[in-house]
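Q: What structure does this chain adopt?
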Amino acid sequence: MSRPPTRPSSAYPSRSGTPSLRDVVHGVMKIFHHEKESEAHQIFRQQVGHQPKPALGLPQTINPDEETVPGIEHPGSTGVIYCSDRAIANGFNYANSHEWANLGQGAPEVGPIPNAPPRPENIPLPVDSLEYAPTTGVKALREAVANLYNDNYRKGKASQYTFENVCIVPGGRAGLSRVAAVIGDVYCSYQVPDYTAYDQVLSAFKRLVPVPTALDPKNKYRLDIEQTKKDILTQGLAVVIASNPRNPTGQVIAGKELKELVSLSRENTTIILDEFYSWYIYPDSEKDIGKSVSSAEYVEDVNSDSVVIIDGLTKNWRLPGWRVCWVIGPKNLITALSQSGSFLDGGANHPMQLAALPLLEPGRVKIEKTALQRHFKAKRDHVLKRLHALHLDVDVPPQATFYIWLNLEKLPPPLNNGLTFFEELLKEQTIVIPGIFFDINPAHRRNLFNSPCHHYVRLSFGPPMEDLDKGIDAIGRVIATARQGGTRKMGHSYKKSLESSSGVNI
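A:
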């Protein structure tokens, strides 16, 4: 007696264990090829500021439903803001945040960790601190930053940083905006994927003409220094901006490669490096624990090499709420940043700058770095192990930062793209960041399905371990549903706003 033909293994099973025709049809229907076919993508496009911009040379148009205030145009949300708004639409709020796993927020856990110095618990408020601080920051803190960089990266070098090479700013974005505001009409090189806020900066500061470079996962997202040199000569690049260590891929430019990148600053090019994750390095050798990475190590002359470093207390010191950061560079840059700060942000918080002074003492920093690296390396390894158990191996495991750049292509559609995966996890009270936010695409014209970041999400292992496990558990439930029960309930029926019990949108 002949057996019936075997059904394709790719079809999703019905309750009886074999796939029904309806399951197969639904499976085929969920293989979207364009953003207009996907509910998750349409929700993204409906957010103000996320509509494609007109092509170059065409007249600018506005959406009259969005732009109701004359002369005002929405720049679009950064990834964390958009994802937080979508989470709120699904019931998240800060009163119930303990019920959620937030693997999206780009912030480290702020509580005590093993063998680290105690957390700050109070802030002195001398009367003088109630006055405005200078737009370049408190001189004592500027000196402390310069001394720390000299101690960590410039021992034995003739050229040393002084307070005149440091500007204190109220957060990393403020530092980036100050720098962008003083750059003239130039071609600015950036990489894809990279930090989401670069998209808004390159959109808002029109004098920066963005020139993209797509980084190849097959090359572990390395920046090709030789190609960058050619681009400087052939395209006239005047500015190169990058995060290092890199958000979101967790890779790092170090050693010879970093030295070569810094050398480009001596070829009439300004190198802007966002070094907020400079402590989050995970060496294999125990003797390297406690070391960090910075372009400051390879600067020859602090006042003639056009190297701009942005960093602060936010990530390395695990104090994001303090909003105390700095920009380091040639003296002439710092005077320009003082002027842009006078009309952009007015300067950093005065009492918090004073409170930061003891935290920059080199001996304390060494202890802090060592504790941080051990703790976060353990969390990284734990999350990678759990993802492996879910058959979600990471293509390029992170060497640095506290992010995992997760490729979803092997998951069944429509779960294999970042926006849909994100929306499905919201149903499980878990937040991640879709990869498209790291596709620095200032015009927003590209079909999202054509983005090189479309099949990715960024997972943060910044939160405490219990939150990480809660989030990985949720990912496991979503994947199990897709693999075992089909995807009929996925890719649609997403909440667009939080509804009250009366049915009124709030």
